[in-house]
Design a protein that fits this description.
Layout: H1 7-21, H2 33-41, H3 45-55, H4 90-102, H5 107-123, E1 127-134, E2 153-160, H6 167-184, H7 189-194
Antiparallel strand pairs: 1-2
């Protein structure tokens, strides 16, 4: 069975209810995954391809991070993964929420922009690309919020810096762009990558 993070709690709730109530449990009728597949088949894939070709025009490779890749012991560190955790205080969180409200965006957009700016700072590139996971649950499919299955998609996010626009204006523009990423994310990352100018075995990010 293939599940995404959204589906896990849904399945767990049903298991708990069956455990408590047994065969008498009146579970809601499941939303058939085929409804999502049918929706997918009705989408204008050529329009989606045109969007991604335009969005990724000029992107020829992943954003380079000009950081030291050798540890103090001399060992190569490329490919290793590290996790950095930062817990924000209530005051810091409140300030970020205030910025999001003022710019009529969301915390998600705000955090994406912060990540994009970090990549811009490390790479020195005016254009950066990174991956974003979206739910992949279209509102047009009735009951999709209760569907169990693998619907998430990862899409490339392109950000431009050096345009000299105000913060609120930039955040609102990014928020609108995210809606387009979500709308056309159904195309799938592998096909989106083939539509770009990235060569060889390189990824988009």
């Amino acid at each position: 069975m293939l599940l995404d993070g959204w589906s896990g709690p849904l399945l767990w709730q049903e298991i708990q209810r069956l455990y408590r109530e047994g065969e008498t449990a009146a579970l809601p009728l499941p939303v058939a995954y085929k409804e999502y597949i049918a929706w997918l088949g009705r989408q204008d894939r050529e329009r989606a391809r045109a969007f991604w070709r335009t969005e990724l025009s000029g992107v020829e490779g992943p954003t380079p991070l000009h950081v030291e890749r050798v540890s103090r012991g001399g060992a190569e560190t490329a490919g290793r993964r590290h996790t950095v955790r930062r817990v924000l205080s209530r005051a810091e969180t409140a300030r970020l929420q205030q910025v999001a409200r003022r710019s009529q965006t969301t915390m998600s957009t705000l955090l994406q922009c912060a990540w994009g700016y970090l990549l811009h700072s490390y790479s020195g590139e005016e254009t950066v690309v990174f991956g974003l996971t979206v739910s992949g649950r279209p509102a047009e499919v009735a009951g999709v919020e209760g569907m169990v299955g693998l619907l998430i998609q990862t899409v490339p996010v392109r950000m431009e810096f050096g345009e000299g626009v105000g913060l609120d204006t930039w955040l609102r523009a990014r928020h609108s762009r995210q809606a387009a990423y979500t709308e056309y994310g159904y195309l799938g990352l592998s096909e989106i990558r083939r539509l770009s100018e990235v060569s060889g075995e390189q990824g988009l990010f």
